[in-house]
Amino acid sequence: MNHIPDALYADREMTTWLIVGASRGIGLEFVKQLLLREERIIATVRETHALHASMLWGQAGGDHGRCQMFICDVLSEASIVSFVSQLAADPFLKIDYVVINAGVLRYPNRATELSFDEFAFHLHTNTIGPIITAQKLLQTNIPIGTIVFMSSDSGSAQNFLEREDGFAAYSASKAALNQMLRHMAAELKRKDDDTIILALHPGEVATDMSNISVPWQVEGIITPEQSVVAMIDVIQSKGIQHSGTFWTWQNQPYPW
Ligand SMILES: NC(=O)c1ccc[n+]([C@@H]2O[C@H](COP(=O)([O-])OP(=O)(O)OC[C@H]3O[C@@H](n4cnc5c(N)ncnc54)[C@H](OP(=O)(O)O)[C@@H]3O)[C@@H](O)[C@H]2O)c1
């Protein structure tokens, strides 16, 4: 499971994607869509999914060795370091696109009610884990084209969604993610590092996360397939001049 076969990297012209958090929802859909596109994929799941995750790729008709699975739990620094060091052991690996998709929403999470631990859980999973995963990847010698963070319209400070009762810790964690990734982009620019850093809002996507009963009307719900097909195009349309910017699945710039 943790060895990258030489065959996977024999054709250096193939595009390689790394999807962090690929067991369900949007992350799993990335794997399916990329398999259909004949791309090469490194997908991570948590330990609990390791036994059956490779069967998930079969939903796209078999991976033909183009999808490799690794274990990464973004709540654990040791897990992140172990995962990244396994990738770094391959001197020929290059990654064109990294999608840091892992995230949680435990609804409701109101500022006036939630516990210390519930707040920390959202921050650790949605902010600290994703940023440290990117940081550890950037500290290797692996050439990386683009790192995409799965953010949310809930994380916009400027376009504050007052109706979103019960989303306080979630939106705060995505706002913090946004601010950290902007700093990451600015730091990389100062170092003349060409890795592109992007934030994406995937839309209102029908997944386990959004399968909650909220008292307001959620407009424009889309399928994971609609979201991911569009996001792949958004990601591939961006260059270094876009590093440190925030986009929707419909390729519209979104306010921080
Ligand atoms: N759905 C939406 O409408 C929507 C809107 C805006 C933003 N987003 C963002 O899009 C991303 C994907 O959401 P989704 O809707 O696909 O949610 P989902 O169906 O609940 O899937 C969440 C994914 O994140 C993984 N994950 C959670 N905690 C993790 C951890 N500690 N380490 C590694 N992986 C972990 C899950 O793995 P396990 O199976 O192991 O739990 C799962 O693969 C999230 O960042 C979310 O905030 C979603």
UniProtKB/TrEMBL annotation:
<dbReference type="InterPro" id="IPR052184">
    <property type="entry name" value="SDR_enzymes"/>
</dbReference>
<dbReference type="Pfam" id="PF00106">
    <property type="entry name" value="adh_short"/>
</dbReference>
<dbReference type="InterPro" id="IPR036291">
    <property type="entry name" value="NAD(P)-bd_dom_sf"/>
</dbReference>
<dbReference type="GO" id="GO:0016616">
    <property type="term" value="F:oxidoreductase activity, acting on the CH-OH group of donors, NAD or NADP as acceptor"/>
</dbReference>
<protein>
    <recommendedName>
        <fullName>NAD(P)-binding protein</fullName>
    </recommendedName>
</protein>
<dbReference type="InterPro" id="IPR020904">
    <property type="entry name" value="Sc_DH/Rdtase_CS"/>
</dbReference>
<keyword id="KW-0521">NADP</keyword>
<dbReference type="InterPro" id="IPR002347">
    <property type="entry name" value="SDR_fam"/>
</dbReference>
